[in-house]
Design brief:
mainly alpha; globular
């Protein structure tokens, strides 16, 4: 599997499916949200180039003018910069944040939303990996999942590891081919990403998480839906316990 010329080093299939058609009257805001989320989660990492406006407009089902306005907003926010000339385009400049050394206390409203997301995640992500394990995956899909796992294991630094972890979870949703499931896991991972940035990194937890990731990957590749579901449930429970304990 080769990387997209617009997204070298990333997972091209993942980059394609995470951006989805926008519905509703607030196209500009929704466009900014989807592009910014893809950047924060590392689907489009720092140094890579976003797809051309025409391609983004087709994926998001909006006008090129809306995409252009959204990219302007991202540029103003310091997430991309636009380069002219041959090989130019909108280049991601966003540097992923490292998790905090000490946990912070969220507002009651934010905490309520976060805790609800943990409950929702416990239902959605085990179902996603079980579905993936029940499918006849192509060699490209299998390679993408393996590459996503290797990226987590080889990530250098807590900020890069956090992004790679998000991409790993999104990869399983992507191979299901379900837009609703992909959307749900993307939203869950976006909120989870914000939560995990608020707490310190613990080597014991990372080691445990990496072991569970490996089990989930092999269960999916070996076509064992029940084992994939069970291991992801345990993974979600462990992460939720850590977050509830540190955040309140």
């Amino acid at each position: 599997m080769t990387a997209s010329p617009h997204d070298p080093g990333a997972l091209p299939d993942l980059a394609r499916v995470v951006l989805r058609p926008i519905r509703g009257h607030h196209a500009f805001e929704a466009c900014v949200e989807q592009l910014a989320t893809a950047i924060r989660l590392g689907v489009h990492p720092k140094g890579t180039t976003l797809p051309p406006e025409r391609e983004l407009a087709e994926r998001l089902d909006v006008s090129r003018a809306t995409v252009r306005e959204a990219i302007t907003a991202l540029r103003t926010a310091g997430m991309v910069e636009t380069r002219r000339g041959r090989g130019g385009g909108s280049v991601v400049t966003y540097s992923p944040r490292a998790p905090r050394a000490r946990a912070t206390t969220p507002s009651p409203k934010t905490l309520e939303t976060w805790l609800d997301t943990l409950t929702f995640r416990r239902v959605v992500e085990p179902g996603a990996v079980a579905r993936a394990a029940g499918l006849k995956l192509s060699e490209v899909q299998r390679a993408m999942l393996t590459t996503a796992h290797e990226a987590v294991m080889s990530a250098s630094g807590s900020a890069s590891h956090r992004q790679a972890d998000s991409r790993f979870h999104l990869a399983f949703a992507s191979v299901t081919g379900s837009p609703s499931l992909i959307d749900a896991v993307t939203r869950v991972q976006a909120t989870l990403h914000d939560m995990l940035l608020q707490i310190p990194v613990y080597d014991v937890n990372i080691s445990h998480s990496d072991h569970q990731h490996e089990q989930i990957l092999h269960a999916v590749l070996d076509g064992r839906p029940d084992h994939a579901r069970q291991t992801m449930e345990e993974h979600c429970d462990d992460t939720a316990a850590l977050l509830r304990g540190l955040l309140g």
